[in-house]
Structures are given as structure tokens and as C-alpha cells.
Design a protein that fits this description.
- The structure is a homodimer.
- The first copy, chain A, has about 425 residues and is an alpha+beta fold.
- In chain A, strand 13 and strand 14 form a beta hairpin.
- The radius of gyration of chain A is 26 Å and the shape is elongated.
- The interface between A and B is large, with 94 and 94 residues.
């Protein structure tokens, strides 16, 4: 070590030259007198080929199996039928760290060869599988695209506390912490802090963990996830927020398209086109539409069901050719106390959901900004003001009309990649039964 | 609203033109028949001047005080003696959200006019003070510079779980969580996960919260902070890690210099020069040097005291003109179990501290990478293997020599800005007594 080495993704630039690579022994196969070795490094894989077993004694001897850490030297040769169009000839291999036991889950086939539980139990190893790690590389791309877009628009990144004195949005579904001599909680969201910080920076975003003690065991729930949070001031109403969300999603997809095409190709993912203006339909009109088109009377229901969302997704596709549909105007009753009502129809809110391919992806909206409105809303909801004292200080001392949204990173990837379970887009998922690995 | 507005930082580009701004009423002053109004928005401040009180009736009438949210229109005039070289004439002000009560802490003077406790109690408002918020803008710059530097070097950003099944590095100093039917903990660091992820991406970093239940009430401790974590594989030894840390710090300072000069100027901060190679002195040589230069025999002590660090900082400045000094080779006894020993002198470790201006800023080093070494180290430390089972899976199935480091974002800013207390570089600090705001 210490000598210049190249990455697997750089091999194609070294045709005819001797190169030096380091990584993991992904596979060894013998096929009609020829030995194929695939080395995987942190970025990709490359194949080495030889007819001389003597060259590869180090990895062909008993006791050195897949996932051993190796160094590989050889000459780069163009080879149209090889993966990536190049392969390494005259390979010489040295073993840095031998692995001597069979893996708990096979990770060198095209698909991970295990059920979901085994995959999650052995995520430490399974996340090395090229198709698995491509998901988490895309997760990095989502964060990067999110930040780049917002930085361009004058937003400031913040990191707000995760240990909080009281439940953020409701008393339920929070994890309790033994915090020295008192009880504290894990933040369900940075909602209060990002609003407070609009008073400081006008435009803020945060990428960080959020914690939900919801006792739900579904394909769409985990109890800790990465939230991409945005909040900004001086908006007209929730349509200003919707326009910003459109920009952010488009920015994320541009970043993925430009910097993560190998991962998208490996996963067979099709990136959606984000329309210049995402179509929208008011909550009450959406219910009317479902009644008209499908004969199911959901008018007056306080929320949309998953079936309603699928129907609306189909309608957006048919009517506008759009993967996305905004549904603004959810009834106030189902929204948190800080939600701004529609001034014209106060039973409806200036908040929205964004549906992506017929499933809710993002929730956002305009918030209350006047202190007196918070007093009234908290009283109406039956809360005491005192636990909200520091939050309310922001509104007592001058806040502009503002709003924002939160995107769940893992859910975005789940829907983008058509994964059957959000646990598969979560690096080390936490659920009702699981806090390891 | 809805009309085009500009930011305070853009006013200088509109000399002679009418502009429209929105923000907070920072100050109103009358001075010899002239009225000065300072508007603060999310990026800076601008002064408006008039001799006609009638223009400003909206903010001069009783009942509208500082921090009211306002709109301001007027004409931009060059004025050498005005802050920023421009001011607004013929101002017209409208109030969007009036503030009618005096602030709990005065935030429109050069310094925040309050003691530390009051500043922290009212951080929701105090963080609006231009000098306070400049600190947190720099915090965003530190994160940006950290990520940019590592992205260029092929690192992948990760977000690892904060709810963990067992204490990360030791059984002490962790916060317990009631996690459904079991007990879980808040992660003290992403140490185990970032090492595991070297097996996936080779080079990883994370920016996220860490939680320390240390019952210390000092100017340097808070119980939740933002950790900038790096870990990467295929290193030669800890000197490879020290070289990477040097690059990361230099990258952070370049980002601050290029993008955050207004904040640095406002805070009177001097950015350090990072030498091409940061000088280093082995732990045992450092103790010998202190004995030689200061006549205090600290040889054989297991750690450096704050006084030792100050002496070494002075020496690095005198000998090398460097604000930075690496001290590699800390005794194994004071380092965590995963620390790699020095192969030549196994009582010393391949780990280091980085001193900045005579105070420890970063800790890092080479880690063990062979499974058998972990078994031996855990046995030696008196731990059972079972709680570490999933962590150990990484080493059972092939890990390269690797290492990394962690920078505490708040401490970096504290030392960079010469702040008297780390709570002042923490957005909403958590300590023994404080979980609000």
C-alpha cells in the first residue's frame, strides 16, 4: 500500500496500461479452464481474467473466500463483452484481509439471495451488494440535490436539537428519554425550530433524523428516518410553498440524473419529469372528482384514503401526463394546530399533500404567524400555552407569513425505485421490533 | 407581497433606483430632526433615512416596536458614511406583523445586552442578533466546506441511526430511551456505523447530532452537538488519516474565506493558515519536551492536561509558526478498544489529537480491522462479544486497514471565534440543566 492505485470506475481510462486496484473479492469463477475474478471497490466492480491458475493462487487456495480484502495488479484490455467494456489481464492478487467463513447472505449474485428479515439482520454485509449500495448512493444524491437547490435560493442550513423538552406536534407518539434528572423527548420533527429560525435567516433547511414512536408495522413506516425539511418566510400563501417544493424536487432529479446515472441504470430506475407547474386539485374538488369518476362517495371524509390517492394519481396521469399532483385544501380538522386556514373557507387549510404516482410523498403548507392566532389555535385544540412558551416567543416578537414542507428521504427513494418496503431504502432501519444492526 | 423584492445584500446594485424590501424593524432612531430606520432581513441590514416623520408614521406611532415585520420602499442613494455605503431615501413603510411588547433581550445594539443565562433562555430572539446569527451562518459554511472537500475526494455521505441497541463506545454516559417494549440508547457517535460503512463505500462521512450523557458543567461541554465524522479505508496508518484531516480543515477554511467573508468581518475572526504539512510530535516526545522546556515532569502521565496542550501550542507557534499541531501516539490505555496499536511500540496507539491554538480540536486514528484483533481487544477490555455482534460482522467478513476522525462543529467555531463558552456556538444548547428553548 501507499502506492498509487486507481478506482474501478477509472479502469476504462487505462487501456493498455498496468494498473493497481484494491477492494473486496466479489466473485471467483472457473469456466472452461478460464478463471474470472471480480474485484469490488467503493465505487464499482471490475473483472480480471486469466487462463493460468498460478496467477491467482492466493485467492484460489482453500480458506480465502468472497469478501476477502485484496490488492490486484494487471493490464487493462478493451473487451466489448466484458462488464464496463474493459477487463484486467495477467492479474496478480495479494490478500490484505482474508475471509475464511461463508457469508451469512450471498451478496455476489445479481439479486440479494435472502428474505427481508435475513437482509435486515445482516445489513452490515448486505449493504455491500452493488444493487443495495446503489440505493444509499442515491440517498446521498438526494441530500446533495436538495442542498444545492436551496443554497442557490439563499437558504441557510441549520441543525436543530433532537432532544426536546416537550412533544413537538402532539403528546402521542414520542420517545421518552431519561435526561439526567428530568424527562425529555426525541424530536418528532424540526417543525418548531425551523419556524423559529425563519425569524433568524428567513429561509432555512435541515437534513436530519426524526423519531416517531408510532406503533405501526407497515411497509411504509420506520421509527427513525431522515427528513429533508424546508421553511421560509414572506410567502403569499401555500402556493408559494408548492412552487418552491416543485423547484426542490426538480433540482434533486437533475442532481441524480447528472451525477448518479450508473446507480439509476443498475437499479433500472426511471426518473420522473417534473412539470413546469405541477397540476393541483383542491381537496373538496378531488373528492367530488372521485364521486363523479368512480361512483364512490367520499365527499365529507376528513382525509384521502390510499385508494383515493391512487385514483387521483391516475387522473393526473391521464389529464396532465404528470407523475405529480398537488392536493391543497385539506380540512383543518386533520392538520396540526399551527396550520394556516384558508381565509376564504376557514374549514379548509392552506396546506397540501403532494402525490407522486398516486401515493402521498410530501406534506406542507402555510403556518400561522400571528401570536394571537397561536393562542386561539392552542386553546381550541385544548392545549395549555405553557409547554409552548419558547416556541411562542418567536411569534410574540415578529414573524412574517411563512410555510414549508418535509420530504422523507427513505420514502422518496422507495417510491422512486418502486421498492416493496421502506426498510429497503433505510440504511439500518428501526421498527417496532428492530434496533439492530 | 407577491411583488419582486430584493435582499439587503443586493441594495448596493440598485443605486438610483426604487427598491422594495421586507424584513424586521431592527432599529428606529431620531437624531436632530432626522429619522433613521434599520431594516434587517435574512441576510443583512440596510438603513433608511428621512427628515419627514410623516413618511414613517407606521413605525413611529405608538405600539409598533423593534422586531415588527415590515415592508419598506424607497430610493437607493450612495452614501460613503452609511453602513454598507448605501442608504434608502424617501422610505415608505408598511407593517406586516406588528410587535407591541418590549423584547426580553435587546438585540439591536452592537453587542447582545444580556448575561449568558438570559441569552440562552431567549435564544429564539437572541439568535436574530446580527453577530449571533453570523456564528450560525458560519456553522452552515463549516458543513458546506466539509462536504465539498470530501465529495471531491470520492467520499459518500451517510446518515446512520441515532437510536441504538447498546452503548457505542462504553457503557457510561449514554442516554436511555424507552423504545416500545425495550430499552435503547442515543448514539454517542456514529463510530461503529461509519466503520461498518467503510465496507460498503470505502470512504464515508456524516454530519449529524451526537448525544453525550456526560454530567460535566464546563464551558466546553454540551450534551448534544453536531459531529463531522469521517472514516475511510486502505490507509497506511494514522498518518494517512492526519493528511486527510489537514485537507478537510484547509477546505473548510477556503469555503469560509470565499463565501462567508461578511460574517467573519462582523465577528472580527482571523482564519488560520493551515500549513502544507501540519507539524507533529509524538505523545512521549511531547511529554519530554514539556519536561525540558518547562521543568514539569509529566512523563508517564496517560494524557495531556490543558496546560500541557497550551505549552505545546506555544511551541508549535514558536517552532513552526503553526496554529496547528498533531500529537500522535497517545497511550493505548486511554483510547477506546477499537484503536489500532503502534506496531513498533504497542503501548502507544496509532491515534492522534490535533491541537488548534493550544487546545484539542479533533481526535482520530487508525482502527483495528482484523476480526481476531477485535476479539482480543474486547476480551482485554472485559467486554462480552455478544452486544457487539452486528458491529463485529463487518470485521468477520473483510475490512481493510482504515481510520478516521470526528470534528465537533460547535467546538471548532468556539475556538475559531474565541468564544468564551461553547453554548454560544450552539444554536439551542442542551446541558445538565437545559433542554429549552
Amino acid at each position: 500500500m501507499g502506492q498509487a492505485t486507481i478506482r474501478t470506475t477509472e479502469v476504462k481510462n487505462y487501456v493498455g496500461q498496468e494498473v493497481h486496484l484494491r477492494g473486496w473479492l466479489h466473485t471467483v469463477r472457473r469456466l472452461g479452464g478460464v478463471v474470472f475474478v471480480v474485484l469490488r471497490d467503493g465505487w464499482g466492480t471490475v473483472q480480471a481474467v486469466t487462463e493460468s491458475e498460478a496467477d491467482l493462487l492466493a485467492v484460489l487456495e482453500g480458506g480465502v473466500s468472497a469478501e476477502s480484502v485484496i490488492e490486484l495488479r494487471g493490464v487493462v484490455v478493451e473487451m466489448a463483452q466484458a462488464p464496463g467494456g474493459v477487463e484486467i489481464h495477467h492479474p496478480q492478487v495479494e490478500v490484505i484481509t482474508p475471509v475464511t467463513e461463508p457469508l451469512p447472505v450471498i451478496i455476489n449474485k445479481r439479486e440479494v439471495q435472502a428474505g427481508l428479515a435475513a437482509q435486515l439482520d445482516h445489513a452490515v454485509v448486505v449493504n455491500r451488494h452493488p444493487a443495495r449500495r446503489a440505493i444509499f448512493r442515491l440517498a446521498a444524491g438526494v441530500m446533495a440535490g436538495f442542498r444545492e437547490t436551496l443554497n442557490r435560493k439563499g437558504f441557510t442550513e441549520i441543525q436543530t436539537p433532537k432532544i426536546v423538552a416537550s412533544a413537538t406536534e402532539s403528546g402521542a407518539n414520542v420517545f421518552k428519554i431519561n435526561y439526567f434528572d428530568q424527562t425529555a423527548f426525541l424530536a418528532q420533527s424540526p417543525q418548531f425550530y425551523k419556524q423559529i429560525m425563519v425569524g433568524v435567516f428567513e429561509r432555512v433547511y435541515e437534513v436530519g433524523p426524526v423519531f416517531r414512536a408510532e406503533p405501526h408495522d407497515t411497509i411504509r413506516h420506520v421509527n427513525e428516518y431522515v427528513s429533508l425539511d424546508v421553511e421560509f418566510g414572506f410567502i403569499e400563501n401555500h402556493f408559494t410553498v408548492m412552487a418552491m417544493l416543485r423547484e426542490v424536487l426538480a433540482g434533486i432529479f437533475v442532481t441524480l440524473q447528472e451525477g448518479y446515472s450508473a446507480e439509476l441504470a443498475l437499479l433500472g430506475a426511471r426518473l420522473p419529469t417534473v412539470p413546469e407547474t405541477i397540476p393541483h386539485i383542491h381537496f373538496s374538488d378531488a373528492q367530488e372528482l372521485i364521486w363523479q369518476r368512480h361512483g364512490v362517495d367520499v365527499r365529507g371524509e376528513p382525509d384521502l384514503s390510499p385508494q383515493d390517492e391512487r385514483w387521483l394519481g391516475e387522473w393526473a396521469q391521464a389529464e396532465y401526463g404528470s407523475d405529480f399532483l398537488f392536493v391543497p385544501g385539506y380540512p383543518m380538522g386533520k392538520r396540526p394546530f399551527y396550520t394556516h386556514p384558508d381565509p376564504e373557507r376557514p374549514a379548509y387549510s392552506n396546506s397540501f399533500d403532494l402525490l407522486f404516482r398516486g401515493t402521498e410523498l410530501v406534506t406542507g403548507g402555510q403556518r400561522l404567524h400571528r401570536y394571537a392566532d397561536y393562542e386561539a389555535a392552542l386553546n381550541r385544540a385544548g392545549y395549555r400555552l405553557e409547554p409552548f412558551a419558547t416556541y411562542l416567543e418567536a411569534f410574540r416578537y415578529g414573524m412574517p407569513p411563512h410555510g414549508g414542507f418535509a420530504i422523507g428521504s427513505e420514502r422518496l427513494l422507495m417510491q422512486l425505485l418502486n421498492l416493496p418496503n421502506v426498510r429497503l431504502s433505510t440504511l439500518f432501519p428501526r421498527d417496532l421490533a428492530r434496533v439492530t444492526p
